[in-house]
Design brief:
The complex is a heterodimer of chains A (about 450) and B (about 250).
Chain A: H1 3-23, H2 30-43, H3 59-62, E1 67-68, H4 78-82, E2 91-95, E3 98-105, E4 114-117, H5 118-124, H6 126-129, H7 143-151, E5 156-160, E6 170-176, E7 183-185, E8 188-193, E9 198-207, E10 213-223, E11 228-236, E12 242-251, E13 256-263, E14 268-277, E15 283-292, E16 297-306, E17 312-321, E18 326-335, E19 343-352, E20 358-367, E21 373-381, H8 385-392, H9 398-414, H10 420-437, H11 440-443
Parallel strand pairs in A: 1-7, 2-6, 5-8, 6-9, 7-10, 8-10, 9-11, 10-12, 11-13, 12-14, 13-15, 14-16, 15-17, 16-18, 17-19, 18-20, 19-21
Antiparallel strand pairs in A: 2-3, 4-5
Helix pairs in contact in A: 1-2, 2-7, 8-9, 9-10
Chain B: E1 2-11, E2 14-24, E3 29-33, H1 40-48, E4 54-62, E5 65-66, H2 72-77, E6 80-83, E7 90-94, H3 95-109, H4 117-128, E8 141-142, H5 148-162, E9 166-170, H6 178-190, E10 197-202, E11 215-220, E12 223-228, H7 231-239, H8 242-245
Parallel strand pairs in B: 3-10, 3-11, 6-9, 9-10
Antiparallel strand pairs in B: 1-2, 1-4, 4-5, 7-8, 11-12
The chains are: A alpha/beta (about 450), B alpha/beta (about 250).
């Protein structure tokens, strides 16, 4: 399909979906869905002439006529979920975009906490969903968010009432297991922390059979006044899959939000992580780690809006690129006129492990207030030859030495993962991927 | 143990070594002295296998094998240890993890069983004593935030742990105050033995007050211009390197 054909193809899907939703308990979403369809029709798919998509062509996604994902499929062994270990002790599992009750498991939660599928919450707890759903992620100007808003079916929902503390991480596992045909899913999640509450959420995208599919995910996050949310996203899609995702966080007064975005899979990945500091004294941390090899492409876009005074933001994204892979970092800090005493710092560091690997990095500051402290910077480098020789001179073979140095480069990010079970899991995944970098599959 | 014959080497097109001949037998300690730019560190790096040098003539035989054909990690496993003049800081790589990986790579090569975490820590506790080093440094990334003295102690500690046959100490005295120098030299002396040879590279005679060599060689402009016993070092201290440069090739 070309771009126009693809637009018509998806518009037909949207119309079918809208008719179906209009009959059910989610009919209240109709207005926003119809608005999103209209916006998608007007926007169409982006091209590399579009500034926000300059380094990433969506042609490979557009040309495939993905069938709608058909929800829970057989063949996902509980064993594969068990392998996630402690990191997934509390979990909501989604297979091909649909909630799977048999694979999910939740320990006791504080009273008033709701953790369930968003589809269920939309019909049964409309009071908790409607004030937020579709209110933050920008479907009016972002094509893929519009498409998700129109086609969204299921995803995770977490509501934490005021002052409640959820200790163990809640892990939202999205598994894709395409059968014979390539399918697309539009997972949609909503996380709402009311005033003074705390939680840790892991959102992971996994695949066990290296198939072709497309995940177009949107997660909306609300952290109320003085709430604390640690969010981890682990993207471990198939090497042949497409992953486009937007995470939009809305932070209240004194709220503390940390996002850790770990991208380790996918043929083509586009991650938008956005946060709005919309209450005085909010604190936002965006950490990211992307590792690519072979011919993978990963594009990280972040935007932090400092709307209110005395907010702090810290951002560190680190990239490891091997083979002929390509990475993009585009980070924007936008300080509004109203945001005096903003303290913002942004850093992007990249390690290129091969001659053919490529990174485009573009840190951006837009500042409309004079009383602020902002800095940004980016670096691109290769492995330190002196360090490599030091390790080899102690008897360590070159491959192991490269692995040690690469893990050392990533340690800045993995070391900031606060949950011990998540940290262990990420370390394990990272080690497997770093080992792959030196194989033929990693180099081609 | 080590025989260097007519070694010539270039770096960036410049000839740095212009015909080095040196034989080191088991248990001997050889000091190599010389002014800045004489080729001392280049020789150390070439022996350890550092890339970036072009060997234009000569050979190095180590225990009957052609050393120059071996990659650096194989040299280390065969028992060569270089104590670096400027130990590199490696952020993110835990020192204990690194040392265990290094020791086990060497043990495996020697046909010894790999050590588990418990046995490894016991060995560390024993070996760290000889340089009086704070063991908590090993929980940090390699050399990160170490003082100059701590870095040098760490080098000698690694030498003790990895138990080499031939240790090359590249200006281990540089940047050390007299107390640290005594500790480091004491550590080196504790490791002297009938089976272990050492090449001690230094600019100053000072170190040789504490590590007393069997032989002293003076390197100048890429050649060994004079060899002798420890008295040569005292003579150099008195007369300076200029004394040698007026009578080259002796």
């Amino acid at each position: 399909m070309n771009t126009e054909e693809a637009k018509d193809f998806y518009l037909a899907r949207c119309a079918d979906h809208e008719r179906e939703k209009a009959r059910g308990a989610e009919s209240w979403t109709g207005e926003i869905r119809r608005d999103a369809i209209a916006r998608f029709a007007a926007l169409g798919f982006p091209t590399t002439r579009d500034e926000e998509w300059r380094y990433t062509s969506v042609a490979p996604i557009v040309k495939i006529p993905f069938a709608p994902a058909k929800g829970a499929a057989d063949g996902i062994a509980g064993r594969q979920i068990e392998e996630l270990g402690d990191a997934a002790a509390n979990r909501l599992v989604f297979v091909n975009g649909k909630f799977s009750a048999p694979l999910s498991r939740l320990g006791p939660l504080p009273s008033g906490v709701i953790a369930c599928s968003l589809a269920a919450a939309m019909s049964e707890r409309r009071d908790k969903v409607e004030p937020h759903w579709g209110r933050y992620a920008g479907y009016r100007d972002q094509c893929f968010v519009a498409l998700n808003t129109a086609l969204a079916d299921d995803g995770a929902f977490l509501f934490v009432p005021p002052r409640a503390v959820v200790e163990a991480p809640i892990h939202c596992v999205f598994i894709s297991t395409a059968g014979n045909e390539a399918t697309a899913a539009h997972p949609r999640s909503l996380i709402v922390l009311d005033g003074g509450s705390r939680a840790t959420v892991v959102e992971s995208y996994l695949n066990f059979d290296q198939t072709v599919y497309f995940n177009n995910a949107v997660t909306e996050v609300v952290v109320g006044n003085d709430g604390v949310l640690d969010h981890y996203k682990i993207q471990l899609e198939s090497e042949r899959a497409f992953h486009v995702a937007t995470q939009q966080a809305q932070l209240g007064r004194g709220a503390n939000f940390s996002s850790h975005s770990i991208a380790l899979g996918g043929a083509l990945t586009r991650n938008d992580v956005n946060a709005a500091l919309d209450g005085e004294g909010g604190d936002c941390t965006l950490n990211g780690l992307y590792l690519t090899y072979g011919q993978q492409h990963v594009d990280n876009h972040t935007r932090i809006d400092h709307v209110q005074p005395r907010c702090t933001s810290r951002e560190l994204y680190k990239g490891i690129m091997g083979g002929r892979s390509r990475g993009v970092f585009n980070g924007k800090i936008y300080v509004h006129k109203t945001a005096e005493k903003t303290d913002a710092r942004q850093t992007n560091r990249n390690l290129l492990l091969s001659e053919e690997a490529w990174i485009d990095t573009k840190p951006q500051l837009e500042i409309y207030n004079n009383d602020v402290k902002c800095s940004h910077g980016s670096t691109i480098g290769q492995l330190d030859e002196d360090a490599l020789f030091y390790l080899r001179a102690r008897g360590i073979d070159p491959q192991a030495a490269i692995g040690l140095l690469t893990r050392g480069f990533a340690a800045d990010i993995t070391g900031r993962i606060k949950s011990a079970s998540v940290a262990r899991w990420v370390e394990k995944l990272l080690t497997e991927k770093i080992d792959l970098l030196s194989t033929d599959r990693g180099k081609l | 143990m080590l025989t260097i014959k007519n070694l010539h080497a270039k770096a960036d097109g410049n000839e740095i070594l212009r015909g080095i001949d040196l034989t080191v037998n088991a248990g001997e300690v050889h000091a190599i002295m010389g002014p800045n730019g004489s080729g001392k560190s280049t020789l150390a790096h070439i022996l350890a296998g550092r890339e970036g040098y072009e060997i234009t003539a000569g050979e190095v035989i180590y225990e009957g094998k052609d050393l120059l054909q071996m990659p650096p990690e194989e040299r280390a496993r065969e028992g060569i240890f270089l104590a670096f003049q400027y130990p590199v800081e490696i952020p993110g790589v835990n020192t204990t993890y690194f040392l265990k990986a290094a020791l086990n790579a060497i043990r495996k090569h020697r046909g010894l069983p790999e050590l588990d975490a418990m046995d490894f820590l016991a060995l560390v506790k024993e070996k760290i004593k000889i340089v009086d080093m704070d063991q908590s440094l090993l929980n940090r990334p390699i050399n990160e935030g170490f003082s100059g003295g701590e870095k040098k102690r760490n080098e000698v500690f690694q030498m003790a742990l990895l138990d080499p046959k031939l240790a090359i100490l590249d200006e281990t005295d540089s940047g050390l105050d007299i107390d640290a120098l005594k500790v480091v030299a004491g550590g080196v002396n504790a490791l002297r033995g009938k089976e272990r040879s050492m090449i001690v590279i230094t600019h100053y005679q000072r170190l040789l007050d504490y590590i007393v060599p069997d032989y002293v060689h003076v390197l100048s402009d890429g050649r060994i211009v004079k060899s002798g016993d420890k008295r040569l070092a005292f003579e150099l201290e008195e007369k300076g390197y200029a004394w040698l440069e007026v009578q080259p090739g002796s």
